[in-house]
Design a protein that fits this description.
It contains 6 helices and 6 strands. It has helices spanning 2-23, 45-59, 78-82, 109-123, 126-129, 162-169; strands spanning 65-67, 85-90, 100-105, 137-143, 146-152, 174-175. A hairpin with a 2-residue loop joins strand 4 (137-143) and strand 5 (146-152). Helix 2 (45-59) crosses helix 6 (162-169).
């Protein structure tokens, strides 16, 4: 009888291993949507108008704005984090990994103002401050129902044209100053 039990037990173990190995071939279904840092690619006429305003403002400093596919995600309060956005980059030959400008779109000007105010308050808090190096300058401008967001670190800038980005953006829309 013990031989039969051993054979039966071996059969059960083999069946269990077969069942378990069959289950392991499929990847588990994701229950949480994956976050992305890539910009949304649907650019609306409103964002196009803001881009045109950026090109004009930056052109005054002989700066060139290009579209970007870079996964830029600055320190964001919830309203900005949830908003559709487009990422652009100012060409800085001596600092090609810098010069990113993010444009967020909202349904109306009140929504954009609320998001800018929330971001302004967020960057003054502990969690907002630890997400950027000390000395980072943040520019938040409301242009209609969009928010233009730019951050740079003057002490680490390698391209002499970098300060021109900030001064160019200061000419757009309504500003939301950030205390340093």
């Amino acid at each position: 009888m013990s031989g039969r039990r051993a054979a039966a037990l071996a059969g059960i173990v083999a069946t269990c291993l077969l069942v378990v190995s069959g289950c392991a071939t499929e990847a588990p279904a994701s229950t949480v949507p994956e976050a992305t840092s890539a910009p949304t690619r649907t650019v609306t006429p409103t964002v196009d108008q803001t881009r045109a305003a950026l090109v004009t403002a930056l052109g005054g400093q002989n700066l060139i704005l290009t579209d970007s596919q870079a996964p830029v995600r600055p320190a964001e309060a919830p309203l900005l984090a949830a908003a559709p956005r487009a990422v652009y980059q100012v060409t800085l030959p001596k600092d090609p990994d810098k010069g990113f400008i993010v444009v967020y779109e909202f349904p109306d000007t009140a929504g954009a103002a609320a998001a800018a105010t929330e971001e302004q308050a967020y960057l003054a808090t502990g969690p907002g401050r630890v997400q950027t190096p000390q000395g980072t300058v943040t520019v938040i401008r409301q242009v209609g129902s969009t928010i233009v967001y730019y951050q740079w670190l003057p002490g680490a800038a390698k391209d002499p044209a970098a300060p021109g980005i900030e001064s160019s953006l200061e000419s757009l829309g309504i500003g939301y100053p950030i205390a340093n």
